[in-house]
């Protein structure tokens, strides 16, 4: 109960701060495998900032594109979704350890912004994440990526969003109208570090207005609607879940329960528990194990197995 109220306080802080301000994939029909290109030589190892990938109501949605350091053909792509309690955060918060490890292994990484509460409530964030996947698939030849090899990862609230992305392929109510509607938003693999998965369990006892400010309601039905555990089914993509054993913001039970549900549905899933780690893998009582560099390699190894 103590951890739930701590999370509620974390969310309320952001709501109060922002309340006064605005706060298996298919190849596209127009693209055949033989038409796919690779990353242009001058782009290798560079970053394109603030690329507009769609629209969210009146605002332009933007991503930063980190190009692989080397490429000899169409490359796999990974969407990164930042955390921040669904009310804060930015695309530039992607850890350099992830971009460095992944681009050195030949991945294009797209770190995205999405609409934030309380100005924009759900389903706006998941619509924006799906729009980003559709954009990359539509622009596969421009970026030199393979549209059949797109994965996703995110942290905390971003972990929730990529988990929801992974288990809701074909759920039209989450697609939105941000652009590229002729493309699929399905991804082939998902990495979820410490993301909330069962919102009813997480927010039990939280003030109703706090959840309503983010999800548009505080009732059980609404929270179930935006909980990844509600959509787990055979055919979901492989998941890698990484969770700190001392996390009091998103308790380990969230990751464990999601992992158990995936395994029961025969979805390939791996759960890595990081010892002595709080939220965001902050040390809690000693050095974390595995270490951050080891976690970066675990993530890249998972994508190597599932996207290459």
UniProtKB/TrEMBL annotation:
One Pfam assignment: BD-FAE
Record key words, sorted: Hydrolase
GO molecular function terms noted in the UniProt entry: hydrolase activity
Keyword Hydrolase (UniProt): yes
Occurrences of domain BD-FAE-like (ranges): 63-262
Source taxon at top rank: Bacteria
Family matches, as InterPro entries: AB_hydrolase_fold, BD-FAE-like_dom, GDXG_lipolytic_enzyme
Name recorded for this polypeptide: Alpha/beta hydrolase
């Amino acid at each position: 109960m103590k951890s739930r109220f701590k999370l509620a306080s974390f969310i309320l802080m952001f709501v109060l701060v922002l309340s006064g301000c605005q706060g298996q994939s298919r190849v596209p029909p127009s693209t055949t495998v033989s038409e796919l290109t690779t990353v242009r030589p001058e782009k290798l190892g560079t970053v394109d900032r603030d690329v507009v990938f769609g629209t969210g109501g009146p605002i332009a949605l933007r991503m930063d594109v980190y190009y692989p350091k080397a490429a000899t053909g169409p490359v796999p792509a990974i969407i990164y979704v930042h955390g921040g309690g669904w009310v804060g955060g930015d695309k530039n918060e992607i850890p350099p350890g992830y971009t460095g490890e992944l681009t050195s292994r030949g991945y294009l990484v797209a770190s995205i912004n999405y609409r934030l509460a309380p100005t924009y409530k759900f389903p706006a964030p998941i619509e924006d994440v799906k729009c980003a996947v559709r954009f990359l698939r539509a622009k596969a030849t421009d970026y030199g990526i393979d549209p059949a090899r797109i994965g996703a990862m995110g942290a905390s609230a971003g972990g929730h969003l990529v988990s929801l992305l992974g288990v809701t392929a074909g759920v039209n109510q989450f697609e939105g109208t941000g652009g590229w509607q002729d493309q699929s938003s399905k991804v082939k693999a998902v990495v979820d570090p410490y993301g909330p998965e069962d919102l009813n369990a997480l927010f039990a006892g939280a003030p109703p207005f706090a959840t309503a400010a983010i999800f548009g309601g505080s009732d059980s039905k609404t929270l179930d609607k935006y909980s990844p555990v509600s959509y787990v089914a055979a055919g979901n993509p492989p998941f890698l879940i990484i969770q700190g054993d001392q996390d009091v913001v998103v308790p380990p039970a969230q990751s464990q329960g999601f992992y158990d549900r995936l395994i029961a549905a025969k979805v390939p899933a791996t759960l890595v528990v990081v010892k002595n780690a709080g939220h965001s893998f902050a040390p809690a009582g000693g050095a974390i194990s595995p270490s951050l560099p080891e976690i970066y390699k675990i993530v890249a190894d998972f994508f190597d197995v599932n996207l290459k």
